[in-house]
Amino acid sequence: MKLPRRDFLVIAGSALFLAHLPAIGGRRVVTVDMRGTARGERVWFDPFGLALETGVAVTFVNRDPGNSHTVTAYHPRLFERVRRIPAQAEPFDSGYLLPGESFELTLTVPGVYDFYCIPHEQAGMVGRLVVGRPGDPGWDGSATTMGGDHR
Ligand SMILES: [Cu+2]
Fold first, then answer.
1. Which residues lie near ion ligand 1 (Cβ < 5 Å)?
2. Which residue of 15, 80, 108, 111 shows the fewest CB atoms closer than 10 Å?
3. How do residues 78-116 score in pLDDT, each as one tens digit?
4. Going from the N-terminus, what domains does the chain have, and what CATH number goes with each?
5. What is the reported pTM?
6. Among the listed residues 24, 106, 117, 43, the one whose alpha carbon sits nearest the alpha carbon of residue 74
């Protein structure tokens, strides 16, 4: 039997309600904006720090009309940077996002993720995502030394 998608969602929603599960039936969306002042003298991630549940999708949106930005993990496989994400996590790089463009990321390995914007790292455009909680299976606080980890 094949159900239309809408019916399936209604049924799934009811099942979640009856099971008294936390309100995760609707897909939660967390957004980090990439911003800049009109003349470009300041650029930043907004918020620049965020705590998330494991597996929640984060969408980075370039809301800066005057600049391209990236969201790029600190990782040896990306521009030979020291690793500042969990050892078991895959490094991510959005590539250049033009104004209005976005990039979605879902992090399933709990731990601390530090990231930067390639053209604006030196201007302080960096951020951190904390996924899950210390003590979660596989948690990796990362960046345990001042310089990060080269593994
Ligand atoms: Cu930038």
1. 43, 69, 117, 120, 125
2. 80
3. 999 999 999 999 999 999 999 999 999 999 999 999 999
4. 28-131 (2.60.40.420)
5. 0.78
6. 117
